Amino acid sequence: MNRHLMILEEARSNGRVSVETLAEVFNLSTHTIRRDIKTLCEQGKLRRLHGGAEFVEDASNLPYSVRNSLNIAAKKQIATQAAQLIPDRATLFFSIGTTPALVATALTIRTGLTVITNNLNVAMILSEAPDVRIVLAGGELRLPDRDILGEQALALFEGYRADYAIFGVGGIDVDGSLLDFHEAEVRARQAMHRNARNSILVADVTKFGRRAAAVGGSLQDADHIVTDLRPDGSFGPQMDLLKDRLIVTGEQI
């Protein structure tokens, strides 16, 4: 993966980056890291700070191909755990995003699923499952993410009742607010939640504290939250409220 993109993702997740820390992570000289940061600052993606830089919020997400390779081991563990909650012959809503697509991969062994989604990646993956029925939203395909948003996606989710909604988010604020990068993403996610009997949020630990502009829904609305590690102490009150609805793959025996 391009090092500049990895630095940007680190800055987006944590708000800022340190030259010394990045030099250690990439096993490079501080001079090289400073040069990377200088380039990203000149592009308007970072803002220089003493000893590092901070992320410049632009309400945009990283490319799908980049996100698909970030934290991949953690996301696969989350997907495997979430799939265990889903029985054969369930009716499922799937949101956009890379982690829901990995849940779809883990569900290809299930039989008789009905899958309702605006995520073309999910539809293609689960087309390999036995005796599957797939209902895909119409409209313009958003590239390169391969998903569909807008009124037709909303109408799709409002027209069905699912046993489970499987969804990801762009970020989770410290008060439990769920964040995404576009208002249309929030609207589609909330339509899924309204029309599902159970909801499963799949989010690796880097999503906790990650910034995004559009807000809608709360961590506390989900019936199950599957993550790889507990977030830092600032999320302690939210974690306490979740109780046994929180599934941490790193704590599973």
For the sheet with most strands, the description reads: 7 strands, parallel
CATH topology term of the largest domain: Rossmann fold
User: What level of helicity do the residues show?
Assistant: 25-40%
Q: Order of strands across the widest beta sheet?
A: 6-5-4-9-12-14-15
Query: How many domains, in number, for the residues?
Result: 2
The count of strands amounts to 15
List the uncertain runs: none
**Class derived from helix and strand content:** alpha/beta
Q: Which CATH-level-2 architecture of the largest domain?
A: 3-Layer(aba) Sandwich
Helix tally equals 10
Ends: how far apart? 32 Å
- What is the CATH top level name of the largest domain? Alpha Beta
Helix and strand sequence: HEHHEEHHEHEHEEEHEEEHEEEHE
Rounded radius of gyration (Å): 19 Å
The shape is globular
Q: How much β-strand is present in the residues?
A: 15-25%
Give the averaged pLDDT, no decimals: 90
How would you characterize the overall build of this protein?
- Keywords: Repressor, Transcription, Transcription regulation.
- One of its GO terms (molecular function) is DNA-binding transcription factor activity.
- This is Glycerol-3-phosphate regulon repressor.
- It comes from Pseudooceanicola algae.
- With 253 residues, the chain is an alpha/beta fold.
- It folds into two domains: 3-55, Arc Repressor Mutant, subunit A; 71-251, Rossmann fold, CATH 3.40.50.
- It is 37% helix and 23% strand.
- It has helices at residues 3-14, 19-26, 30-42, 64-69, 72-83, 98-106, 120-126, 151-158, 183-194, 236-242; strands at 16-18, 46-49, 52-55, 91-94, 114-117, 133-136, 141-142, 147-148, 162-167, 171-172, 177-180, 196-202, 214-218, 224-227, 246-248.
- It has a seven-stranded parallel β-sheet, sandwiched between helices. A three-stranded antiparallel β-sheet has the order 1-3-2.
- Helix 7 (120-126) links the parallel strand 5 and strand 6 (133-136).
- The protein is globular and about 55 Å long.
- The relative contact order is 0.12.
